[in-house]
Amino acid sequence: MPFRSEYVETLKLLARAFEGVTARGFESPVLVGGAVVEFNTESDVTSGDFDVVTPYQDALKEELVRVGFDLPSRFEPCQRGLIHKGLGIGVEVVGRVPFEGASDQSRLVVVDVGGGEVTMIPPEDIIADRLGQYCMDKISAVEMLEQARYVWILAEIDDEEYLDKRIQEETSGEMSLASAKRQFDHEAGHADRARKKD
């Protein structure tokens, strides 16, 4: 399944903004959250906004405005982050570093998006993140389990030992890779039965 066009265009704009930040002598911002899920599932799971971490928030905001994003106006007090009105996608800075420094920064993935590069967390970290959110609220966050399962199925996992470690960290020991696999299989069975009923 190809990436949706709005997602690709936003990645290209982010690449230009990230390049502008690094041109100032700063480290590249890092993409986290649902947009990383969308990348690893090739838009099978979509995200309405892009979450970014960087210690250089002011520089990034200036670069995002330069490439076409709008800052919230005083008439939009509830708007979080910057919005590209043409694409209908927002960008929000949600922290300074990925996972407050708990993840291995040497594993960050640099993606060539055509005309520029975007740095993002690896699939191991986004799986662990989604499972962590699921464990915090298994009823309302069940979609996080599904997102983790999709990334597990579709992404290239390079290091299962690291993935196991990160799952245990993000779930405070409630889950491991082994228990996550069992949960994924259980959810897959539910999905298969639902399709048969349809």
What would you note in describing this structure?
- The protein is of the alpha+beta class.
- The chain has 2 domains: 5-120; 123-197, no CATH class.
- 48% of the residues lie in helices and 13% in strands.
- The protein contains 7 helices and 6 strands; from the N terminus they run H-E-H-E-H-E-E-E-E-H-H-H-H.
- The chain has helices at residues 5-23, 34-40, 57-66, 123-136, 142-154, 160-170, 177-197, and strands spanning 30-32, 49-53, 82-84, 89-95, 109-112, 117-120.
- Strands 1-2-4-3 form a 4-stranded mixed β-sheet. A two-stranded antiparallel ribbon has the order 5-6.
- Strand 3 and strand 4 (89-95) form a beta hairpin.
- Helix 1 crosses helix 3 (57-66).
- The chain is globular and about 45 Å long.
Could you say which structural class the secondary elements and strand pairing correspond to? alpha+beta
Low-confidence parts: 192-198
The portion of residues assigned to helices is: 40-55%
State the domain count.
2
The side-by-side strand order for the widest beta sheet comes to 1-2-4-3
Largest sheet: 4 strands, mixed
Global geometry: globular
Q: Indicate the mean pLDDT.
A: 92
Beta percentage is: 5-15%
Number of continuous helical runs: 7
The oligomeric state is single chain
Number-wise, the strands total: 6
How would you briefly describe this protein structure?
The protein is an alpha+beta fold and 198 residues long.
Architecture blueprint of SSEs:
Layout: H1 5-23, E1 30-32, H2 34-40, E2 49-53, H3 57-66, E3 82-84, E4 89-95, E5 109-112, E6 117-120, H4 123-136, H5 142-154, H6 160-170, H7 177-197
Parallel strand pairs: 2-4
Antiparallel strand pairs: 1-2, 3-4, 5-6
